Amino acid sequence: MRAAVSFAVLSLIAVGLALSLGHVPFGIDRMEVGRYYLTHGLADTGAANLVTGVVLNYRALDTLGEVTVLFIASLGLGVFMSLSGPRNGGKLPPTSLIVRRGAGFLFPLILLLGGYIFLHGHLTPGGGFQGGAVIASGFLLLYLGIPGLRLRHGPFTATESIAGLTFVIIGLIGLGVGGYFLSNFLPKGSPFALFSAGVIPILYVAIGLKVGAELAGIVANMIEGGEEG
Amino acid sequence: MIYIALLNVVMLVAALFAYYLRDLIAAVVACAAVSLLASILFYLLQAPDVAMAEAAIGAGLTTAIFVIAIRRTGRYEE
Fold first, then answer.
1. Is residue A11 in some structural domain?
2. How many domains is chain B built from?
3. pLDDT for res A7
4. Burial of B52 (0-12, 13-18, 19+ CB in 10 A)
5. Could you tell me if residue B15 is inside a domain?
6. Nearest CA of chain A to the CA of B65: how many Å?
């Protein structure tokens, strides 16, 4: 009986799929939205990097959602790690002088690279998420290179909150000036210049700082564990 | 073209290692190898944005977070 029912349901789904996919022509380019972005993207958004143009202009609301998801994940991990009790094997082994000094020497350079990636997100490949991840990996290097390091979590939280607020406030200003949420209300300037593409660089700096602070907070919570409470 | 095929084969082998290894730290390293090769593949397929995100998050941060979690729990799969 069960086998017959599942067979009937499966064949129904197969017939439906075949009927609906049968209308799609095979081997013909149907990417009309993609073609529109490629031909009009630079004029519409002013961003030389078309990926950034899509992520922060046509689909900026989705980006806000992504950042929110990451924020909630970071928050949940922080709550979970502070609720769990003491655990075994949490202490990192000591490192040599060369590793400690090397980590301290490389840390500002890694932060600089991350900042470069999100400041030039509208010109070259990369952007807020990539730059933020690079910044967080700098903090990870610092934690691994210097065992027993304890950073204050206040600056992480403050950076994250201010950056998130900036994103939403710019979106609301765009709603007031341009007529829809996150509209690009600043002048677009000449393409390929550092100060171009309107609000996109400001939004990417906010996203880069927010993602960097969130991921660094996740790393800090994982390594420090529930010790801070 | 031959490079892409070679990368795919090595990625598949690393993914099988990640599935079959009992030592979880070794399995995580195999996962990191999959991510790193995927990022090279994205770069060869002309998607540098995705390649950067995959290298920084997939091969870097995720591996570290998994290793920390394994250190705090158990190293071997039962």
1. no
2. 1
3. 93
4. buried
5. yes
6. 7
What is the model's pTM? 0.81
Q: What gap in Å lies between CA A51 and CA A57, rounded to an integer?
A: 10
Question: Shortest Cα distance from B68 to chain A (angstroms)?
Answer: 7
Query: What domain range includes position B9?
Result: 2-72
Alpha-carbon span A74 to A76, nearest angstrom:
6
Residues of B in contact with A125 (CB under 8 A): 48-49, 51-52
Q: What is residue A191's predicted lDDT score, i.e. its pLDDT?
A: 77
H or E stretch at A93:
none
ipTM of the predicted structure?
Answer: 0.84
**Among the listed residues B15, B55, B69, the one whose alpha carbon sits nearest the alpha carbon of residue A219:** B69
| Cβ atoms < 10 Å from Cβ of A35 | 11
**Can you give the C-alpha Rg of chain B in angstroms?**
14
Pull the structure tokens for residue B35. 């991510």
Q: Which residues of A touch B69 (CB under 8 A)?
A: 222
User: Quick check: A133 and B53 in contact, CB under 8 A?
Assistant: yes
Overall number of domains in chain A: 1
Q: DSSP letters of A28-65?
A: S---HHHHHHHHHHHHHH--SSHHHHIIIIITHHHHHH
